[in-house]
Amino acid sequence: MYNKAVKQYLEYLKITGIQDIFIKPPKQINKTELLKDLEQNYNNCKKCILHKERNKFCYGNGNADARLLIIGEGPGAEEDRLGKVFVGRSGQLLTKMLSAIKLSREDVYIANIVKCRPPENRNPLPDEKSACLPYLEEQISIIQPEFILIIGKVAAVTLLEIDQTLKAFREKTYNFRGIKTYVSYHPSALLRNPSWKKLAWIDLQKLQKDYFQQ
Ligand code: URA
To answer: What is the CATH number of domain 30-213?
Structure first.
């Protein structure tokens, strides 16, 4: 409807002798700036009780133009101290896992289901997850990654809304909001159970194959 009216108007301009029109190009969205502004807006969030014990709100870090978004569960002690995601021991392992498939932290964006640390690193509760999920949904719609890697069962159950084992999750890929999505082990599970690293490597290789179109 709108396009038809525009077309008619352009034809009218042509008939009346106007040959050139200048259209201002749409302003490019700067995703980095946008995420930075949103983080500032939200970092005093008090939507759930997790704000009471947090030191820092951990919004997410990385490349806002990333092709790959990694989603974990929630910040731990080191993340809570620094306000950055995956900077503790599991973060160091995650960095190594990425480099094994020729990706760096600068290539990817990383966020969690909840942005504040659950006390004693317990699993986030349903009302904490539902209060926080709109932040992640918004991050996904801004970044628009080509691939998502969900790490750990808690994040997988929350996002994919299927209650099954991690083993079952790993068997296939998912279409989450139109984005090809993989599920694999959380690095903290790999630190506890190093024998699972070979299974995580199988998952990472599948992702690498798609990412680099090998
Ligand atoms: N575990 C997570 O799930 N997220 C972090 O940011 C750190 C540890």
So the answer is: 3.40.470.10
* Contact assessment for residue 145 and residue 93, using Cβ atoms and an 8 Å cutoff: no
Q: How far apart are CA 194 and CA 25, in angstroms?
A: 53
pLDDT tens track for 94-144? 999 999 999 999 999 999 999 999 999 999 999 999 999 999 999 999 999
Which atom of ligand 1 is closest in space to residue 85's alpha carbon? 6
CA dihedral 130, 123, 144, 147 (to 10 degrees): -140
Name the stretches of the chain with pLDDT < 70. Answer: 1-2, 25-26
Q: What is the pLDDT of residue 2?
A: 60
Q: Edge to edge, what strands does the sheet with 61-62 contain? A: 61-62, 108-112, 68-72, 147-151, 179-184, 174-176
Q: How far apart are CA 154 and CA 122, in angstroms?
A: 11
The answer to whether 94 and 70 have CB atoms below 8 angstroms apart is: yes
pLDDT of residue 25: 67
Counting atoms of ligand 1 from 1, which one is nearest the CA of 187? 1
**Structure-token pair, residue 50:** 């997790």
- The finding on whether 112 has its CB within 6 A of some atom of ligand 1 is yes
Q: Is the CB of 80 under 6 A from ligand 1?
A: no
**How far is the centre of ligand 1, averaged over its atoms, from the C-alpha of 1 (Å)?**
48
175 CA to middle of ligand 1, Å?
Answer: 23
DSSP 88: S
**Distance, CA 191 to ligand 1 centroid (Å)?**
13
